[in-house]
Design goal:
Length: 325
């Protein structure tokens, strides 16, 4: 799978920022999502948005796990929705806890290694597919969602094929420590870290109001990068000793050899969040894993066309690959 970036969008930062803000996502308006609220095993809830295709059942279901602070309205989510609709597939975007526009109930939130939540969601969707005639199920994850999906695929091993036919990750920080270091310095810290913390801190403070004493407010407010934020919020709330423990145990890269279903791993070499030196090499993955590492594309960007460009190229290639499995 080849990708060549437009000449008018040079560099990983432009190929990341412009597509998210300005590039076209779909050719025609999408029908509205239908939302379902599911009660989780621990008494919390998640919201799942469905875009169901008008085609005879049974039909494939494409499940997309969004990235950090993403949703079913993220640019990549809507682009994937368009291709699912064009193929006559069903499409679902499960929202990680707190990402659907309403604060979740439990003290926990979500994290990059949240494979148990991924497994519960996929198991429930598989049961739904079986009730509707047994259509195949395919799963893709973007950025944080991609790493979490790969962690589930690794943990599930041979059992994964009972739920999904194939999986794909796009721009996932498979080495969380390398990604965390990259986003915490220079331009990345000034732009991307500030952007993420601008929504993550208010959510954390709302969680503290919901559960007084959950963490130290002053320490959270002093956090200036994701390492510090994860140290006070993400790691302790999800059973990790600290950020280093979370990033080590949550990273998918060391376990890619354990995957036992067809898996596509997409990373641009100029991704500002994911250093090229941290990307998995052919000798580090098993025979089920296909690596696609184009030189350009940025972070979940991969723009194409004349200005303002569009973001349909990467979802089309990923959907075609999944369909071929």
């Amino acid at each position: 799978m080849d990708y060549v970036a437009p000449r008018w969008l040079p560099g990983g930062n432009l190929q990341t920022i412009w597509p998210a803000l300005y590039a076209r996502r779909v050719h025609a308006p999408l029908p509205g999502y239908r939302r379902e609220r599911w009660t989780t095993p621990d008494g919390d809830f998640i919201d799942v948005d469905f875009l169901e295709a008008a085609a005879p059942r049974p039909r494939p279901l494409l499940v997309l796990f969004h990235g950090l602070e993403g949703s079913s309205r993220s640019h990549y989510a809507e682009a994937f929705a368009a291709f699912a609709m064009e193929r006559g597939w069903d499409y679902a975007v499960p929202h990680f806890r707190g990402c659907s526009g309403e604060l979740n109930l439990a003290p926990r939130a979500y994290h990059s290694g949240d494979f148990e939540e991924i497994g519960w969601i996929l198991d429930r969707l598989r049961a739904r597919q079986d009730q509707n005639g047994g259509g195949s199920m395919l799963a893709a994850g973007v950025s944080l969602g991609g790493n979490a999906l790969m962690r589930w695929t690794e943990e599930a091993g041979g059992e994964a094929s009972k739920l999904v036919s194939a999986v794909a990750s796009i721009s996932a920080p498979l080495d969380l420590a390398a990604g965390g270091a990259a986003i915490g310095r220079g331009f990345n810290r000034l732009v991307y870290t500030r952007m993420f913390l601008s929504t993550m801190k208010p959510k954390a403070l709302a969680k503290l109001a919901q559960h007084p004493g959950l963490f130290d407010r002053d320490t959270l407010m002093a956090a200036r990068n994701l390492y510090d934020f994860d140290n006070v919020f993400t790691a302790p709330l999800h059973g990790f000793r600290d950020t280093d423990d979370y990033w080590a145990r949550g990273s998918a890269k060391p376990h890619l050899h354990a995957i036992r279903v067809p898996a596509l791993v997409v990373n641009a070499a100029n991704d500002p969040f994911v250093p090229a030196s941290s990307l998995p090499r052919a000798g580090e993955v098993g025979s089920y894993v296909t690596l696609w590492q184009p030189a350009h594309g940025g972070h979940v960007g991969f723009p194409l066309g004349l200005p303002p460009g569009h973001v349909r190229g990467m979802p089309e290639r990923v959907v075609d690959w999944l369909a071929g499995r």
